[in-house]
Design goal:
The complex is a heterodimer of chains A (247) and B (222).
Chain A lengths: L2 H11 L6 H13 L1 H18 L8 H28 L5 H27 L8 E2 L5 E3 L8 H7 L2 E3 L3 E4 L11 E2 H5 L18 H8 L9 E7 L6 E7 L5 H4 L1
Antiparallel strand pairs in A: 1-2, 2-6, 3-4, 4-5, 6-7
Helix pairs in contact in A: 1-3, 2-3
Chain B lengths: L2 H16 L11 H12 L3 H23 L2 H17 L10 H19 L8 H6 L12 H19 L3 H12 L4 H8 L3 H31 L1
Classes of the chains: A alpha+beta (247), B mainly alpha (222).
Chain lengths: 247, 222
């Protein structure tokens, strides 16, 4: 064994923490090495000094005081617990958590319902109110929801949307997507607003007065969104009857 | 409550508590402790009081060595017994109660040390003023008592230079006389790690003591 290795083992040796074979080797080394023997003695002295570290005797009064504090604290905590048990005999923290969570969810749902009803009150009059809360009014004076119209034969429905039949003709306007009616109008696939380019006077005249000089019938559809301040209005010229439609 | 019986049982427990056997072996001395634990679990505070009486000196001693002053040691002991009562239902009666108790004590001491900041300046005068050392009873032992008190203060300072884990390991191994395996069990470590911590701690304490002796000699020469 080398001295460097012995120096590392001496701290364990003085406390009896070496395995017997290692301790024997170390003792053998110490008989022939004065320097390591000196180091071992120093560690032994330090170890004796440390193990002589007696704890001061704590007087009985302070120990009794400590015990009394512990017991009174326990009693205080148990009293608090028993008060809760008296108030709620079948006190179960999990049950309480579940009930309070359910109550919170119910209150939140109720609040949301009340809030929605307040901001979107039903509108009496000519507006048509769909089942999704989208009031629709047309220029032909018909009333009722789109769904009602479909059922009563005022309009025809297709798989992709609702077609309204125009008065006095068998033409139909472009389909209104069904999903727009079912999602409350909030995520209605709105087409981007049409920006009317600045037109010259002649162009305007041409658009207002078509070649056939007949007043063009316009279809007006109004959709009332959940926000009372926002109303979507469609104005579209009625399409000319085609052969397929007239047939 | 028959206090004679309590004292008798406390003495028995205190004696048994000092017996050091591997934690894995069944401990016959656990039975009176287990009986007290079972009673305390049902809310019998007198049984828990007996448990405290049986272990208070040991707990407060470990806390004093870990923290370096009596006030903190008493606070730690108080908190330790409160935690013991709180978690009494979680104690496995097949385990060694003392080991479980010491683990809680060490944890409480670590928490308290962190709460109050690391350095524990141990001043002999401050300790004396606080009444932490037994005052000499007669003029004959005045000198020896003062020397003991000084020694204690110096050793407490030496322990304060160690890391938390080293201090816990050296206190339990060298000052409480537990085996390396028991210390490892209490600290949730391995015997190899504990040996390494003990070796390092003994070397640091020797260095501290050498410096202190050197300084004392220099002061005397002046």
């Amino acid at each position: 064994m080398k001295c460097e290795h012995i120096e590392q083992l001496i701290p364990l040796y003085v406390g009896g923490d070496l395995e017997p074979p290692e301790a024997d080797d170390l003792r053998h080394h110490l008989t022939g090495c004065a320097r390591c023997r000196q180091l071992n003695e120093e560690f032994q002295t330090s170890q004796n000094w440390l193990t002589g570290f007696a704890v001061p005797e704590f007087d009985e009064a302070s120990l009794a005081n400590m015990r009394a504090s512990v017991l009174s604290e326990i009693e205080r905590q148990e009293k608090r617990g028993s008060w809760i048990h008296w108030l709620l005999p079948k006190w179960n923290p999990r049950l309480v958590l579940a009930v309070s969570t359910a109550a919170l969810v119910a209150v939140t749902a109720l609040s949301v319902t009340v809030y929605r009803n307040r901001i979107a009150p039903p509108k009496p009059g000519g507006d048509l109110v769909t089942k999704t809360g989208i009031p629709v009014s047309t220029d032909d004076g018909q009333s009722g929801t789109l769904a009602e119209n479909r059922l009563s034969g005022n309009g025809t429905s297709t798989a992709t949307g609702v077609k309204r039949r125009f008065p006095g003709s068998k033409l139909s306007e472009p389909a209104l997507p069904e999903e727009a009616l079912n999602n409350g109008g909030l995520s209605f696939p709105l087409e981007p607003p049409v920006t009317v380019p600045e037109q010259t006077e002649s162009e305007t005249t041409m658009s207002v007065e078509p070649e056939d000089k007949e007043p063009k019938e316009m279809l007006r559809i109004e959709l009332q969104t959940a926000d009372p301040n926002i109303r979507i209005i469609w104005l579209a010229p009625k399409a000319a009857p085609t052969e397929s439609n007239t047939k | 409550m028959e206090w004679n019986n309590v004292a008798l049982m406390a003495d028995q427990l205190r004696f048994d508590d000092r017996t050091v056997t591997p934690a894995t072996e069944p401990r016959s001395f656990n039975s009176p402790v287990v009986a007290l634990v079972m009673r305390a679990r049902t809310g019998d505070l007198s049984a828990f009081d007996q448990l405290i009486i049986a272990h208070q000196q040991r707990v407060i001693g470990i806390a004093w060595r870990m923290l370096g002053n009596q006030d903190d040691a008493q606070d730690a002991a108080q908190e330790t017994f409160l935690r013991v009562y709180k978690h009494l239902n979680g104690f496995d009666t097949k385990q060694d109660f003392s080991g479980w108790l010491y683990r809680i004590t060490v944890n409480v001491c670590h928490d308290l040390a962190r709460k109050r900041g690391r350095g524990n300046p141990v001043s002999l005068d401050a300790e004396r003023e606080a009444g932490n050392f037994a005052e000499p009873v007669s003029p004959h032992n005045t000198e020896s008592s003062a020397m003991h008190a000084q020694e204690r203060a110096i050793i407490a300072r030496a322990l304060a230079t160690l890391s938390e884990k080293e201090r816990a390991a050296i206190v339990l191994r060298d000052l409480e006389g537990l085996t390396t395996e028991e210390v490892a069990g209490i600290l949730g470590s391995t015997p190899t790690t504990v040996r390494s911590q003990i070796s390092s701690a003994r070397a640091k304490i020797k260095t501290f003591r050498d410096r202190w002796l050197k300084r004392s000699v220099q002061n005397r020469e002046r």
